[in-house]
Specification:
Layout lengths: L2 H10 L10 H42 L4 H6 L7 H15 L2 E6 L5 E11 L10 E11 L10
Helix pairs in contact: 2-4
Length: 151
């Protein structure tokens, strides 16, 4: 130490709080990091839910287009083959790489699709939550015949 620094150190005495962090700052920073983590991981969960809903809607749309072609051409019977509709929606889910269920409603007029997906976490991983599970839903109406006014 230089002579001036020794004199100043002797005059002021040692600083017992030098380099210490107050409890308030430590708790505040922890709270801010937790809030940042909830925003970031909440956004990831929202995006995953939107993807699951979109995949379910596309699978329902694929199933809703499954026609019973012989009956549709002849103009007799049911126009939508419900077993083919379930198979088409299930095939779409598998090709898209998602897990889900496809069912026909009890009144046999709607195709119901449920998709389950996961989203990785960034900040919640620090407390042991590595993924968030989300579910998407969609349905398609299974229409027999032509509806509405067309030309």
């Amino acid at each position: 130490m230089t002579t001036l620094a020794r004199r100043l150190h002797a005059a002021t005495g040692p600083d017992h709080e030098a380099g210490s962090v107050t409890v308030f700052v430590a708790i505040s920073m922890l709270g801010l990091l937790l809030l940042l983590g909830l925003v970031a991981d909440g956004g990831a969960k929202l995006r995953a839910t939107q993807r699951a809903d979109a995949t379910a809607a596309e699978a329902a749309r694929a199933g809703g287009q499954a026609l019973d072609i012989p009956n549709a051409i002849s103009g007799s019977g049911t126009r939508v083959d419900r077993s083919i509709a379930v198979a088409a929606a299930t095939t779409y889910l598998h090709q898209a790489g998602h897990d889900g269920t496809v069912t026909v409603s009890d009144d046999r007029t709607r195709l119901l699709v449920t998709v389950t997906d996961t989203a990785p976490t960034a900040f919640l991983n620090l407390i042991g939550i590595s993924t968030l599970t989300v579910t998407g839903h969609a349905e398609a109406s299974l229409v027999d015949g032509i509806t509405g006014g067309g030309t």
